[in-house]
Amino acid sequence: MKIWRKIFLATGMIILLFTVRQITSAAGENQGFNAKEGEVVFLLDTSGSMNTYDKKRLAIDAIRQAAYSLPSNYKAGLVSYNTGIQTIGPVGIGLEQLDAQFAAITYKGYTNAGEGLNQAVGLFSDREKVDRSIVMVTDGEIDMPDKQAKESSRILYSDAIKRAKEDGIKIYIIAVGSELNDPQMHIFAGAEMTDGAIYWQGQSGTLVQIMNRILYDRMNIPKKSVGVTDGNGGSLHVELPSPGAERVRIILTASQGIQNVTGDYAAEEGHITSGQNFAVLEMTRPAVEAVDVHFQTPELTGVEAYMTVEYTAEPVVDISYRREEAEVSGAGEKSNGRTKIPLADKHYADLRIWLKDIKGKNGNLWNTPYYEGQEVSFRVNGVSETGKINNGIITYALSIDGVDELSIEIDSGSFTEHYEITQPAFTKLAPPQDPIPEPDYRPLWIILGVLAAALILILALWVKKKNTTVVYVAQPPASREPAKKMETKTCTYSGKFNIYVVRTADGRDVPPQTYQLFGRNSGRMTLDQILSSCKIKLGKIGEDDIIIYPGPDHSVIIMDQSERCTVLRGMEILKKGMGYPVFYNEKITITFEDESTEMEVHYKNLKPSERKA
């Protein structure tokens, strides 16, 4: 009993683990259409040489620009290093705490990039379906006080790269200054091995431009360009895509500085964060359709502006049902001489799909000219589809025969805005009951009729096959043609056999006999049957293997299927298993298997008096 109990418990655990795995897998699939979460660790070289190449601390300003530009589904962390680790901000640290760490950073000491990258890789969580990136800003190769420490840092750097590659972490390296001008330097291996990228300040653009390329081109953070201006200042008029946004950020960047940024807006909350070369206006639940942003720049320089919009939404599905009908003849309500009977397997649901603002009062986030005509990817019961927004909704029709519930998911990647969507939306189907039609037995009668006809045809073919014998008839040697197949059913017997036993094994005399073929069934006969009819008994010496068939043109077909008999047609020996035609006045000579008994069979025509008899 203990063994069976253990087997039962083990089986139960296997089933439970399988069920949990299936549920987890399903949950992962359901999250597949939501925007991916992200984690970014900024890795800053704070060695003493940065005092030369980054006197204005623009590297720190560029990292602040990126951190404040990240959407809510991205979490940032910070590691700064010189001879050792100067500061560590865990992934998910608040932006105010991050600013405090930036303020405490000083440029001094050596360049221990190995320990810096090792700490950066260790900050990431182990959650699934998360994009992970390291943005590294440095001005030089690994450099430590002595050779041993330098080599240890190099080894640690290589090991950290391997860990990053295994964990799917991409490393983006921004090289500042003039020392990192050799693409083969060891420090760049981090980007090459993790499918990241390398950027050189100046050659690849300013730090502001490089950071924007990493965020929007490499990390694919959704954004919309809302303006580019030239001059010593100005303003931007930014139209918001739809009311009901959870959060809106307007990000201004200028490579030569931006100052005195203000905004005209109304929102539940709002504030402006400024740096040397950037400013971010962030609004929570804006209550306006447009925002005006004013700014100044110290020089004639361009200002680029981006907008990121975040929504918290859920799919809404409105369903109407219909069924297709076909006109067939039969009992029931008449329409133009035919009866309309609904097809049981043709039921449809017409869906109207849109996104609803969860926290606000906006019933349809797409009901705005901004989204009109935009293509959206979605899934219905796991099947991927694409539709266009028309008057705020996507319409979709599907067959629902055998379907009890619908699962609707919207692909957040269809938008330049960030949608945090609670999904899938499950909807129970409740189509109306079908009318019950009167039974129509005509298909049954048709089926029975078809089966009866098929049975009759099969019987006819069977009878025909039963009464038909196919033999292969040898052709004259002069023709040099192979044997031809012949059906004997169409042939009839005629004439007679005159039978002469020339010699027997025991030397007895057997009187001649005549066997009339005319009028007999046109089937297969054996010589044994003929001899028995004539009361000639030879004793099973191969006579039952000499076969006779009716042939065309009043002939008979003789076939030798014996083992040791010798059969001659005239002077020609018959091959075993091959049919040979014999015509009137021809004879067959047979030497039987005992090698003593010999017989002649003469094939003759009947006289008219014999036919009457």
Write structural notes for this entry.
It is built from eleven helices and 34 strands. By secondary structure, it is α+β, with helices and mostly antiparallel strands. Strands 7, 9, 11, 12, 14, 15, 16, 19 and 21 form a nine-stranded mixed beta sheet that branches. Strands 3-2-1-4-5-6 form a six-stranded mixed beta sheet, with helices on both faces. Strand 30 and strand 31 form a beta hairpin. Helix 3 (58-69) runs parallel beside helix 8 and helix 5 runs parallel beside helix 6. It is elongated. The model is unreliable at 7-31 and 328-335 (pLDDT under 50).
Strand content: 35-45%
> Largest sheet, described in full?
9 strands, mixed
- Radius of gyration from CA coordinates: 49 Å
Uncertain spans: 7-31, 328-335
Count of DSSP strands = 34
Relative helix content? 10-25%
Shape: elongated
| Rounded mean pLDDT score | 85
Counting helices, strands and paired strands, the structural category is alpha+beta
Quaternary structure: single chain
Layout of helices and strands, plus pairs?
Elements: H1 2-30, E1 37-45, H2 50-53, H3 58-69, E2 74-81, E3 85-89, H4 95-104, H5 113-122, E4 130-138, H6 147-166, E5 169-175, H7 189-193, E6 197-200, H8 207-218, E7 224-229, E8 233-239, E9 247-253, E10 259-264, E11 267-274, E12 278-286, E13 290-296, E14 303-328, E15 334-335, E16 338-357, E17 375-380, E18 383-388, E19 394-399, E20 405-410, E21 418-421, E22 425-428, H9 442-466, E23 470-473, E24 484-487, E25 496-503, E26 513-516, E27 525-526, H10 527-533, E28 546-550, E29 556-560, E30 566-569, E31 572-573, E32 579-582, E33 587-591, E34 598-604, H11 608-612
Helix pairs in contact: 3-4, 3-8, 5-6
